[in-house]
Design a protein that fits this description.
- The structure is a single chain.
- The chain is α+β, with helices and mostly antiparallel strands and 412 residues long.
- It has one domain: FAD/NAD(P)-binding domain (3-Layer(bba) Sandwich).
- 22% of the residues lie in helices and 28% in strands.
- The chain has 10 helices and 20 strands.
- Strands 1, 2, 8, 9, 10, 11, 17 and 18 form an 8-stranded mixed sheet that branches. An 8-stranded mixed sheet has the order 5-6-4-13-14-15-12-16.
- Helix 1 crosses helix 10.
- Pfam families: DAO.
Length: 412
């Protein structure tokens, strides 16, 4: 089957690119080895960052410049004003709230966040503050960074492009026929369980598989040391919690970043990231939840913490390698032969990554209208489960800021 492009990896980057190329008239399919969004997309907090966290030292950094226009791009798609049409993607929140620890460096950081951003903090009078922020010191601000439900985004794009999205038999469900390293002549795929195979002949091949890009690059005869992983250890809290999304700033860092979601059982779940997720890399799950409990008692003194259930998950941020192993300033694209490898670096940058890669891919002018008939019976991937909906996830309770965890239970 001859195609303009094959995309490998069905997270936010691959799906946004699939929309871009499909609307242009390209004959393109997307291959997923597990479930859509498995890994970084489904594990993300869903915040459409506008660059605030990169200006906390009072400077408009390259990272802030690269992401500052993204909230408007996403907002237009979520409103149906531009492609992809994401009007069926659920929002967790229209905004995030900002507050600070009671320190001069934190105050300076809060004001530094105003520099050069398209989305700027809007100070709130006391009567407009969320109840959970009662008792926090100093200024509280609203930041128009929307928070999406990643699972809903994945379902939205799957519904729109089901005829172009194929499930393959895990990482071993694809192999490449090469002319030379980085020049792929054919993509040979196998359906799960070995029930069917197909040979695709694309002019372009794109890797948007996050951490899976390293494996794909090896298969294509390319260097996999061009990718790095930076780990996080995220915390989940479940129980009678308020709906809330926000960042607590402490100087040039986000001490905690909180997003909330409604779980299937009707409870509220908080995802807690920020500096505590960086610190948690070296901690056990129990140690991390005790640390987060202690941090929240300090930064949200009015939040009741009794009776909550806790869990954690680890996720690697897969990115193009940097010289010092630190965070790349922006999205990364590598090209070799007819293979393009992309890492958006942040969820918010997926549209910019799609634009950059799409600019390198042209539709075959002689091609007729795309007919997915040969793919009709091929299996389609499901959407990955949100971390707190995983059936084997273990939860536990904490007795106090320095208490030991009580016996674990499994998710219902």
């Amino acid at each position: 089957m001859r195609l303009d492009a094959v995309i490998l990896g069905g997270g936010v980057a691959g799906l946004w690119l699939l929309d871009r190329l499909s609307r242009r008239g390209c004959h393109v399919v997307l291959l997923e080895a597990h479930a859509l969004g498995a890994g970084q997309t489904i594990a993300s907090q869903g915040i459409i960052h506008g660059g605030l966290k990169y200006t906390l030292q009072g400077l408009l950094t390259p990272s802030a410049r690269s992401v500052r226009s993204m909230p408007a791009v996403w907002r237009n798609s979520l409103l149906g004003r531009s492609a992809p049409n994401l009007t069926r993607t659920r929002l967790r929140s229209e905004c995030c709230f900002l507050w600070r620890t009671d320190s001069l460096t934190a105050w300076a950081g809060m004001w530094g966040a105003r520099l050069g951003l398209h989305v700027k903090p809007e100070p709130l009078p006391p009567e407009e503050r969320p109840a959970v922020l009662a008792g926090v010191p100093g200024m509280v601000a609203r930041l128009a960074e929307q928070v999406i439900c990643p699972a809903s985004f994945l379902e939205d794009l799957l519904d729109q492009y089901r005829d172009r999205i194929l499930l393959i038999d895990g990482p071993d469900g694809v192999r490449f026929r090469l002319h030379t390293p980085g020049d792929i002549d054919a993509v040979c795929i196998t359906a799960p369980g070995g029930h069917g195979s197909l040979t695709l002949r694309p002019r372009y091949v794109v890797f948007t598989a996050g951490a899976g890009n390293a494996h794909l690059r090896r298969l294509a005869g390319l260097d996999d040391s061009t990718m790095q992983r930076r780990p996080l250890h995220m915390t989940l809290m479940r129980g009678e919690l308020p709906a809330f999304c926000g960042h607590c700033l402490d100087g040039a860092r986000t001490r905690v970043t909180i997003t909330s979601a409604a779980a299937a059982d009707g409870s509220t779940v908080w995802q807690v990231g920020g500096q505590v997720a960086e610190d948690g890399v070296t901690l056990s799950p129990r140690e991390l939840t005790q640390h987060v409990q202690s941090e929240l008692a300090q930064v949200l003194p009015s939040l009741p913490l009794a009776g909550l259930h806790w869990s954690t998950y680890r996720i690697d941020r897969a990115e193009a390698a940097t010289a010092n192993g630190g965070r790349p300033e922006t999205l990364q694209v590598l090209c070799a032969g007819n293979v393009t490898t992309g890492w958006p670096t942040k969820l918010a940058l997926a549209p910019a990554l799609a634009d950059e890669i799409a600019a390198r891919i042209s539709a075959d002018a002689s091609s007729k209208l795309f007919h997915p008939g040969p793919l009709a019976d091929w299996p389609r991937p499901a959407v990955a489960r949100l971390p707190w909906e995983e059936p084997q996830r273990e939860w536990w309770t904490l007795t106090g800021p320095n208490g030991q965890g009580l016996p674990q239970r499994r998710a219902a």
